[in-house]
Each structure stands twice: as structure tokens, then as C-alpha cells.
Amino acid sequence: MPELEAIIGLEVHAQMSTKTKMFCGCDNDAFGKPPNTTVCPICMGHPGTLPAPNKEAIIKAIKASLAIKCTVNKDNHFDRKHYFYPDLPAGFQISQYDFPLASKGIINYDVKDASGNVIENRECRITRLHMENDAGKLTHRGATTLCDYNRSGTPLMEIVTEPDLRSADEASAFAQELRRILIAVNASEADMFKGMMRFDASISLREKGTKKLNPRSEIKNLNSFKSLEKALTYEEKRLRTLWEKEGGPIPNDITVGWLDDEEKTKMLRDKETADDYRYFPEPDIPPLEIDDKFIEQIKKDLPPLPGEQKEKYMELGLDEKQANQLIDQATLHSIFDAVYEQTKDTKRASSLVLTQLLGFLNSAEKDVSEGPDSDAVLELISKIDDGTISANSAKEVMQKMVESGKSASAIIESEGMQQISDDSAIEALVDQAIEANPQAIESYKAGKEAALGAIVGWVMKESKGQADPGKVNKILRDRI
Ligand SMILES: [Zn+2]
Fold first, then answer.
1. What's the 181 CA to ligand 1 centre distance in angstroms?
2. How many Cβ atoms from other residues are within 10 Å of residue 256's Cβ?
3. 430 vs 400 pLDDT, higher one
């Protein structure tokens, strides 16, 4: 049996984070909205309607293209790709075929071992990036199929790689780096739970050392990194067994689906070829002519990419894991940046954002986007810094902010958590403490410095943590 290697390529679909859809003015954020409420005759595919390309989507797709080092093609155009599906009422998708928006890019990514240490840095060539519109969504219930067109017309980027990946782990590491890049340049939110990023993965085998590409199996519609890894691992093993039995590769290209529950692939059909789609240039949209100046301006405004961001965070003193946590989540890193900007204190910012905020979000099973935003966290910090609350009660306030969605000041107010810094109130508490702890006072006077801690502790307990510990200490020393 010859030594075989897996040859893997990906097609990645990412929804663009635009205000409106690709070819009409409908709201592009349908999340949580009732079915078929963010639609119009254009995205419903009514005959006689005219699509108009979304400039914001084109700009975002150019940003993504530049971030993955593609060449933006100044002359590119839309094509009709014909196929019938109930969630595609026009009977065709508006996509790009022979003249895509961008081509020939490259992405460098780290391959890590099980404990997250980088083993090696690899590169994967990008064939092309093109724009298209998404189809609607079908829900099957028994014998009935429900159709929701809210997603119909959502702007998509399709990013196609060269077959440069050699294992399921590499494919997943590559896809995660691509996701970070798309988030960093704000081209896509790439929220996997909301299906904003989906993969088709092609895999074939060949004898190591040979160059020929054999017929491949394409696994459609994988929507998490876990399914991408599992499906590729499964399919590689299946193709190896077939090779052993047949003495060679599968005879022709095939398309398979991944059954998440059963953890196996299922044959769908022989792979369709471009001829099957009857592509032709979209007659309702003129070719896009993008000039150099426009591309240069977008390039100039490109935000830092994940690699640069990571470097910046590590220079600030975060470790690699913390830096990765931030670059993996756009909202989290904007909160961290705002907190660091205000405090200029890496330790404090990471404790507040990565330990407290993230910890409370995890226990409340909430996503970062559902928690307090950067303004809300900055308000909490100002309440600590102006002495309204102690750092200790701030933790409790943060937890309540995450759980209730209320602001820091509303929580402090309604829970009566203001720190007691009024001297006379603290003096009264200190006097009570001295009276209640005669033994501790004696030990302190006999030279046991630690005994003072017990008295301060008594005051803090009595004041439910609201006395300013610095003041308690000072007043206590003055008194004895
Ligand atoms: Zn519409």
C-alpha cells in the first residue's frame, strides 16, 4: 500500500455585516425577527424587479480581499447562476463567475498542538473572492416545509482556496484565522451560531510525492469548526478504506452531506460542473469598474489585522492565550481597548474584561454581544475611581450588570452599594469595633500588628463591605 496524503481545499461563505441586503434596501439584520418580514419584491425574486448593488457590501468585500492579500480586479461583473430551489424564488443566484472581485491571495496561519502551542506557521493560497446573494432558509417539519425569505438577498463573500491544506486540523486552523481576519476588518461578524460563516470542504487522496489531483469528494454546508474537523476526518478515513479496496482513488467527483448527529457523510449526488449552472453575465447590472484610487483609499483605512493585533496585545503584557481571546471576539476586544485607553493599566484591564466580565458572561451563558458594552464598563470604572464603590463591590456590580443588563449607576443606586466614605459614619463604626474587640486592641498594643486586620475586618463586615478600607485603617490608627 503506497503512502497516501490528503489534499484539501475550502469554499467559505461569509455573510457581510451591511445595513441592507446585496441588491435591495431591505434590513440585513433579520436575527430574531419574524419570518418573511425583512423582504421586498426584489429579494423575493419577483419578475420585472431590478437589483441595485450595495456599495457598502462592495467596500467590505474589497476590505476582505485586501486583508487576504488578493489582487482586486478593476473590471469584474456579476453573473447569473441558474438552479432551482424553493428558497431561491428567482430560479438563479446573482454571483460572480469568470471575472470575480478579487483573486490570488494568501493567508498565513498557525497550526497548534492539543494544548494550544504553535507547532508551525503555514500558508494557504487563495484562488478568489467573489460576491453573491444568499438564498432563503427552509425548515422541514414532518411532511411540511416552511420557507423564510428574510435571509434571501443577504450579501455573501465566497472565498475559495487552492488545495493547499493537508489535514482536518490544518483546515480548521486556516478557517479560524480567516474568521479572525474577516472580523478584524469588519467585513463580517462571522458569528458561527447565527450561520454567518459556512464551509464546503473538498478532499481527495493521492500517493505522496505525486502531483496529480484525483477526483474529490465535496462535503457541503458545514457550519462549525467542529463539524469541519469531524467531517474531513471521517471522509479522509472513508476514502482511504475505498482506496485500499479498489486500489486507487474514487472514479469521479462526488458531493456528500454531513450528518452531524450520526457523525458520518452521506452521498448526495455526482458533483455538478460549471456547465450545469448555465452562467451568463447578469444583464440587469452593469460591470463594476473599480479605480485604483478607490482601492488605495480602502487599503489606507484598513484596520490592524489579527497578527498585528496579537503583537500589540502581547507587547502590552498579555499572554498569548489572552491575546487570542481578544482577537477572536470583536466586541470583547473593543471593550478591552476602551478600558485600556481609559486606565493605561494592562493588568487592571485584563482582570476587569478577561477575568470578571468574561467569567460572569460564561456563568450567565451569555454571548459577549449580550453583555454590557464598552460605555457601560467605563461607567463602572469611573464609579470605582471616584470612590463611589470599592473594587470589591465593583465585582458584584459587574455580575449584576451582566445578569440584568442594567447600568452600574442604576445597580449601585437601587442596591444601596455606595461606599461609605463619610468620616463621621466611619468614626462611629470604628468606635463600635474598638468596644467590641478589646482583646484585639490589647494584642495590637502589645505589638501584634496583624491584630489590626481583625478590627478592620469587623468594620468592613458591619458595613457590608461599603466602608472605605483605607479610611477605616487611618481612623483606627488615630484612635488607638
Ligand atoms: Zn428586499
1. 28
2. 21
3. 400
**Are 221 and 198 spatial neighbours (Cβ–Cβ below 8 Å)?**
yes
Same domain, 289 and 344: no
Residues 407 and 427 both lie in one domain: no
Q: Is residue 234 part of a domain?
A: yes
Do 309 and 395 have their domain in common? yes
Q: What Rg value do the Cα atoms of the chain yield, rounded?
A: 29
Domain assignment present for 82: yes
Mean pLDDT of 248-276: 84
| pLDDT confidence of residue 478 | 84
| pLDDT digits 0-9 by tens, 350-364 | 999 999 999 999 999
d(CA 394, CA 428): 25
Instruction: Kindly report the average pLDDT of the chain as a whole number.
Output: 91
* Whole-Å CA distances, 180 to 119, 191, 311: 19, 11, 14
Closest CA to 219 of 199, 249, 197, 194: 199
Query: What is the whole-number distance in angstroms between the Cα of residue 20 and the centre of ligand 1?
Result: 8
Q: How far is the CA of 30 from the centre of ligand 1 (A)?
A: 12
Q: How far is the CA of 93 from the centre of ligand 1 (A)?
A: 14
Q: Please indicate, yes or no, whether residues 337 and 399 belong to a single structural domain of this protein.
A: yes
pLDDT tens column, 199-216: 999 999 999 999 999 999
CATH number of the domain within which 457 lies: 1.10.10.410
- Ligand 1 centre to CA of 29 (Å) is 12
Cα–Cα distance measured from residue 22 to residue 94, given in angstroms and rounded to the nearest whole number: 10
If you measure from the C-alpha of residue 185 to the centroid of ligand 1, how many angstroms do you get, rounded to a whole number?
26
Quote the ligand 1 centre to 39 CA distance (angstroms): 4
Specify if 299 maps to a domain: no
Domain boundary among 271, 294, 317: 294
User: What total of structural domains would you count in the chain?
Assistant: 3
Residue range of the domain that includes 456 = 423-479
Using the mean position of ligand 1's atoms as its centre, give its distance from the Cα of residue 359 in Å.
40
Expressed in angstroms and rounded, the spacing between residue 43 Cα and the centre of ligand 1 is: 4
Choosing from 397, 415, 433, the residue where a domain stops is 415
In the reported structure, the alpha carbon of residue 139 is separated from the centroid of ligand 1 by a whole-number distance in angstroms of 21
Choice between 372 and 438, residue whose per-residue pLDDT is larger: 372
